[in-house]
Each structure stands twice: as structure tokens, then as C-alpha cells.
Amino acid sequence: MRPERAEPGQVEPTRPGDTGTWRRLNETASAGEEGEQRTKPSPMDRVHRITDNLSLRARLTLIYGMLFFAAGSVLVLVNYLIVALLLNALLVEDSAAELLAHSDLIEEVLNHVTRFSLLALFLVGLLAVGLGYAVAGRALSPLQKITRIARRLSERSLHERIALSGPDDEIRELADTFDGMLERLDRAFDGQRRFVANASHELRTPLAINRTLLEVALSAPDVSADLKSVGQTLMETNARHERLIDGLLLLAKSDRELEVHARVDLGEVAETVLSQLDAEIGSSGLTLRRDLRTAAVVGDPVLLERLVGNLVENALKYNVEGGEITIRSGLYEGMPAVQVENSGKVVPAYEIEGLFEPFRRGTGDRVGSGRSAGLGLSIVRSVVRAHEGAVTAWPRAGGGLVVTVCLPAPPAEPTDRR
């Protein structure tokens, strides 16, 4: 069987014996050709490109410097004219012979005045540019504080506020407006999480009661075959609802800020998950390939185990007969990572982003699937965000997906020096 050829935007399937090689997206072949066909930028385009890449502080400094040199140039010109007029006024009563004799002296004096004025303008201009850079940084420091806080914010840290002090100016008004927006977002996200958690807890109790009643009813010796068939169907439906509730609870938990920060090896987590699903993988008839290497991260072990478990379960459920699953862990582009690759139906690239939305499945339907609740990849993305990582999914050549999760590397452990 010949391996599928990866087209641009797809990932090449893992070949036998190539398990340890990370799968990467196939680059577009025409990208280089398009780059060669681009016309050379004009000088004005280069200037605009340079100015567009300047920071606001650099732009303000540049404006300060230009204004200072423009005003200084006007001052040098005015100074030149004043000195020339004064010298001519002092010698206006002299005879023509004396004026001719002093003309060289007047020109030399004006040259010296111009030269020293330009030198003073250059030196003071450099000092003005330096002071302008410092003043611009001082003026923009409130904006830098707003930027730092905005970068730290996420759905789990919306409680932080800027609380900018100082005069009641435009920047203070911007910071107060931003704080008000954060307050509203914090209340909205907190209310949403509490609603999901409370609703999930409230729904688990009646589902547990229903399961118990069904088990008691089906265990009776005089149960008819029709009633037993209906009872089994209700048990499966009840189990599906319990999985849905458990998924919602886990989703609500992973959306909150991490409470546990332990050092975890993704390779060991993957080994644990595979041992738990060993029976299911064996009965599925799928070929399992693995290359699990050390990938240390800091996070919640329970959530990380659920992350890897969801990836493997997703690869099991949405596979084809006689297909394969490849799981690898280690360092991917310098970051601890885990990658799960599976064969399956062809998934268009434009549908991949929707797979990470709650209650979305590969077939695009919301109902009619008893295999899952449609929360697997949603929980994966939520757990990855809680750990400040990144998850990417690419279509696999010939069908299936390749999902890669990269997490931040843990800080280096201090070494004992004796």
C-alpha cells in the first residue's frame, strides 16, 4: 500500500519505522514562486515600511527632533540676518574704500557665526532628541502599564485591574474605561462558569437516580425481553447524558485558573492513558504506534491526563476500520509537546476550527451521535489555554487528523552548590 501524498495544507502520514519524527504541515509549493513574481518596492514603499515598524515612542521622538531642528534652523537663519544687519549698520557711514576693506572681515565673521551656530544646533539637537525620547517614555508609561496588564489577562485572571493614578486626563479616562470593561467581563465569565457548574451538579443527581432505578428494574427475574430491550436503550441514553454532564463539569473546571502546579512528564501521562485504554484499543483492531519521550511541564496532572485521554479517545472514535493511531511525546520546536495522529475520514481544513467548539463533531451534527458528547476537543483547548499552551490540528493526507499540543517549558530547577 503506497503512502498518501501530502498536498499543501496537509500533513504527511507516518510511515512504518518513522514513528519518532514529528508531523509538520506541508508548506504551500507556490509560495516561493509568488515571492519571485512580486515587484520590487519603490523608495517610498521602503520609507513607509520603515515608519510603519517604528514604535510610538520612536515616532514621537522623531517628531520632537524634527520640530527642534526645524525651529533651530530658523533661529540660525534669523541670527545670521541680525548679525549681518548690525555689521552693515555699524559700517554704513564709512567710505567706499573702508567698506571694501572691511567686507572680507564681515564675511569671515558671518561664516564663523554660521559655523558655530550650526555646531551648537547639532549638539543641542542631539541633547533634545535624548530628552524627547525620555519625555516620550515618561508620557507613554501609563499606556505601557495598560499593555502589560492586558497581556496578562485571560478568562481566568479578569479580576486584575489597572487602577491608574494621576491626573484626570485622556489616558486616565482610557484606563478607567478599560477597568469598567474588565469588571463587566469578569462578572459575565464568572456567572457563566458558575451556571455550568451548578447546572451540571444539579443534573447529575436525577441521572444517578434514573440509572439506579433502571438497574433495579432490569435485575428483576420476571422482566420481559421487550422491557429489557427498552431498559438497555434507556441505560445507554442515561450513560450518554452522564458523559455529557461530566464533560461540562470538566470544561467548567478547566476554564478556571489552575489551582495545582505540579511537575508532570507528558510521556508518563501518555503511557498511563494508553494503559487505561489498552482493552478498547485492542478490541478496535487499530494499529497503535508510539514514541513516548520525556516532556516535562508544570500543571494540573488530572487535567493533563484528561487532555491526552481526550486526544486518544477522539482518535479511537473517529477512525476507520483497519486504521492506525500514532502518539508521540517529547520536545517539538523546543517546547514540551504531545502529538496524536489518526487515520479516518477526510476532514476539510475549513472545518477543523469548528471541531474545537462545544457540541461539534466531525460530521457537523449536534445530535444523533451516541459515541461522544462533542466536548472532547473543546476540553483539550480549554486545558491547553489554562496551561498557557497552544494546540493545532491539521488534516492528514488520506483522511484523519494530526493534533499537536505544545506547553511552556518548566523553569529550570536550582542546583545545589556545596
From TrEMBL:
Q: Which residues form the HAMP domain?
A: 137-190
Q: What is its EC number?
A: 2.7.13.3
Please state where this protein is localized: Cell membrane
Membrane-spanning ranges: 62-92, 112-136
Instruction: State the reactions this protein catalyses.
Output: ATP + protein L-histidine = ADP + protein N-phospho-L-histidine
Task: Please give the name of this protein.
Answer: histidine kinase
- Is the keyword Ribosomal protein in the record? no
Q: Where is the composition biased (Basic and acidic residues)?
A: 35-44
Return the broad EC class: transferase
Q: Where is this region: Disordered?
A: 1-44
Q: Does the keyword Transmembrane helix apply?
A: yes
Q: Please list the residue ranges annotated as the Histidine kinase domain.
A: 198-411
Looking up PANTHER family in the UniProt record yields:
SENSOR HISTIDINE KINASE TRCS (PTHR45436:SF5), SENSOR HISTIDINE KINASE YKOH (PTHR45436)
Q: Which UniProt keywords apply?
A: Kinase, Membrane, Phosphoprotein, Transferase, Transmembrane, Transmembrane helix, Two-component regulatory system
